[in-house]
Write a structure and sequence with these properties.
Elements: H1 3-18, H2 24-34, H3 39-46, H4 50-68, H5 77-88, E1 95-99, E2 102-106, H6 113-126, E3 130-131, H7 145-157, H8 173-184, E4 190-195, H9 202-212, H10 221-234, E5 237-242
Parallel strand pairs: 3-4, 4-5
Antiparallel strand pairs: 1-2
Length: 259
């Protein structure tokens, strides 16, 4: 069970319980707890207080405890989720495969081990530099086919380097981008989704991007930027910065950035 499966699994439980998906900090708490990070680490990454992260964590553990009938805390979150996930996984049941007109049932034990290993290797290779942990899950997608075609044309045909998707809150900007990724995920060697809802410094953001690309960040910001530009030059990359408006000072004229 990897961290993306954990986030998806918890998001599904929380949505069924509350009707709302995990927000950015909730997702970070789930991810960070799974990776055995402290609340203090998570708080520093999102520029919020440790107490705020602790309150969000406590609320999450309470909701999960109620939904799953288990006493879930930060200390036992990983072990409990692994046990529950294994029990609820469809792989513990018969698997229904559909291929052409021949529909048949297979029991997991009868699957060819070498085929499983090959599939796992392919998946790991393709997603090695794909980090969509903070990307939302799409429930519905309607009436954005024209915008989706434009995005596809600009990025894949015209090789447009920078695209801004602008509009009022709630009209589907984030969903549009996620849909594009789902349809074209194999087109990119590197895909990174980051939210600036609680923006960090440029230095920390560049460090984050380089670490995902498995590059050791250099000492100075200029050197780090050169590292990043080299990656963008040599690999097909897609980097999404959601909630970009948060780098600006509210209620000021355009171009007034946060310190």
């Amino acid at each position: 069970m990897n961290v993306n499966e954990v986030v998806t699994f918890v998001d599904k439980i929380i949505f069924e319980k509350t009707g709302k998906h995990l927000d950015d900090i909730q997702t970070a708490v789930v991810q960070g707890t799974w990776e055995r990070r402290t609340y203090d680490d998570i708080a520093q990454e999102f520029n919020v207080t440790k107490n705020h992260v602790g309150d969000i964590g406590a609320e999450l553990w309470q909701l999960l405890s109620q939904a799953l009938g288990e006493d879930i805390k930060k200390t036992n979150f990983r072990s409990t989720l692994e046990r529950i996930y294994i029990k609820s996984s469809p792989h513990s049941l018969n698997v229904y495969h559909i291929h052409g007109n021949n529909n048949s049932f297979y029991h997991p034990q009868t699957l060819n081990h070498s085929n499983q290993k090959t599939q796992e290797t392919n998946i790991n290779t393709k997603s090695n530099n794909h980090d969509l942990t903070l990307a939302p899950q799409i429930i519905n997608f309607h009436n954005r086919e024209t915008e989706l075609q434009n995005l596809t044309h600009w990025i894949l045909n015209q090789n447009t380097n920078l695209i801004s998707i602008l509009g009022l809150s709630g009209i589907g900007k984030t969903t549009l981008v996620r849909k594009f990724i789902d349809l074209n995920i194999q087109q990119f060697e590197v895909i990174i989704w980051r939210s600036l809802k609680f923006p960090k410094s440029l230095n920390l953001l560049i460090n984050d991007l380089l670490n995902i690309c498995k590059e050791q960040p250099q000492e100075t910001l200029d050197d780090k930027l050169k590292q990043l530009f080299d990656i963008l030059t040599n690999k097909k990359c897609l980097i999404i910065l959601d909630d970009l408006q948060n780098i600006f000072i509210p209620h000021q004229f355009a171009g007034k950035y946060q310190p």
